[in-house]
Amino acid sequence: MWERIWFEAPGFFTYHNAIFFLEAAGRTLGMTAAGCISGFVFGLILALLRQTSSPAFLPLRLIAIAYVELFRRIPFLVIVFIVLYAIQPLFPDASLFAIATIAVCLVATAFLSEIVRAGLESVPQQQIDGAVTLNFGPLRTLWYVVLPQAWRVIIPPAVAFAVMFIKDTSLASHIGVIELTFSGKMFLNRGFSPLLGFGTVLLLYFAMSYPLSRLGAYLENRLAPARRS
Amino acid sequence: MPLLDVRNLSCSYGSEKVLRDVSLSADRGEVVSLIGPSGSGKSTFLRALVGLEAPDGGCVLFDGSEVDYAQRSSLRDLRSRLAIVFQQYNLFQNMTVLGNVTVAPLRIQKRPRDEVEALARDLLTRVGMEAKLDAYPADLSGGQQQRVAIARALALKPEILLLDEVTSALDPERVNEVLDTIRQLTGEGITMLIVSHEMAFVREVSTRVVMMDGGYVVEEGPPQQIFEAPTQERTRDFVGKILKH
Amino acid sequence: MNYSFDFAEVLAELPYLLGGAAITLQIVFIAFFGGALLGLFGALGKVYGPSPLRRSINAYVVFVTNTPALVQIFVLYYALPDAGILLDSLTAVVIALTLNSAAYLTDIIRAGVVSVRQTEIDAALTLNMGRLQILRHVLLPHIASTVFPPLSNFFIWLMLGSSIAALFGVEELTGRAINISTANLRTIETFIVVAVIYVMLTLLASGALSLLGRRVLGVRQRLV
Q1: So what's the ipTM on this one?
Q2: SS3 at position C7
Q3: pTM of the shown model
Q4: Backbone angles phi, psi at B10, to 5 degrees
Q5: Among B17, B119, B168, C131, which is most exposed with the fewest C-beta within 10 angstroms?
């Protein structure tokens, strides 16, 4: 086994292949980043909808709850399939990368919504009362008072979530997105030793995930001893 | 015409009535104090007045016009003319002392920054907090936070200032610094509505005292009447018990 | 674009799909309890073991939790035959998921192990408690309350994660969905039904776990 790796290594570690791997890793990161950013925006909207109390918002509130509860209970792989088969007939030209990214965003929205909600709820009601009586509208209250205080509760689990999603996007390889895991499969099919191809892929995932998870742990320690009051 | 005229205000939490037909008025320059046992509805009254609790009956007239609490513009108008200081200070934890005092005048009232900052410095000097402009609330004592909260309320140039048990959450040795600050304000002719358990203070600064119990107004009158010759049994009980301490 | 949904063909296959769900549950139980056993040893080794052991356990945990399970299975699936070990896909997937779970569970259980404080044991000793009593009344409740909620969440997470077995031809829930959809071409309907089954399964699991936590362990906490 080791002789084989030794023998194949020069043909494997070429400039061309390095670029290929980096591009694939870029797609992995791209999907993760798109998921986290859109997931945060939509997750925030869902979390805010869940905080409304007026009867007029009841249907939206129920939709928000249903969305979050459902999408956290369906395997990412199944969601990828559903998105793939829902979008392809409608938009035959949609790229596989776009389809996988949409699936990532759908799931990320559900998970980040819960994280954001925990952050919003960590801000004491008195802070909001204070803002309201100073004539802050809902948006200004959110922007000037709630979000700046919710960050420290939101960021650490959000980073942990990003770490999880770097890994989960590997499932997009199954529908043919040329991301990191897919490139491992390609080198397997080209006849390279599986340890060489997938070993490299593992190391590249590690290189992306490990710093981020360390950052998450650091931020958790840094931000956790929150407010004295 | 009174500045604030509340008529038969009622309010409930769920099925529990916490305010029953409360009527109360305050003229410009008056200092009206609400006293009564815990749970008598004093704080709820203030919170309902600023629209934090939805009233289910009665009406509030401010400067002669009725406040419609269901309508945002009416509520906004009211809140731009009164200010409230809470028991728990409610200073924004993410802003400095100066930030707390200036944020509403700058962002909401859109007053010019130079004027607002000069006013804020002046107010913070008056409450003795001029040395802590850049401190965050978490680094201040309760008394200091409460003095900043008073400055924040005054920066809005309110026509009436509501004080909701502003000394109740403080360590005993911090109470006086806050009372001194308020005492100083009463000397400047600011209209105030005070909920407090500090009877000696209430007696000293109030022009009128309102005794509440069980969501009702039991009795109202000048401090001499309430503290020395109350007409109601319930008031005599309460005042007697408190003053014995 | 006119697509009319037709669930009849999929629903006819419901027994077949539920059979797949049973296999999913088997995979999850083996991987979870196997992983928990390894994780217990891992946690004890990480806390009480000699430094080289601690470091190797730590390296294992950090590496496994920072790389995708899918690629780990690929390595096991394709590289082992290279080394002369032949495994069928179900075994390979179950072994890989167990080893993967072991890493996550090591961290979770370790948090429980370190949550035990000597002061509490001392307090129990002064109350004249015996060893078993201490274990039962002091240590277990404490460990349970720290460890049970993340363990439960991990169980649910593993349930969803086990669907990757389908990519290796294992006929669990997702695998059977792929089989059906290639036969009846009602792909969307099939996967929607399967999604609903996963929602049901995880809801049942959440309910059972929170019941278990409340009744048996006295843990009250919101689970996923």
Answers
A1: 0.87
A2: coil
A3: 0.85
A4: -125, 150
A5: C131
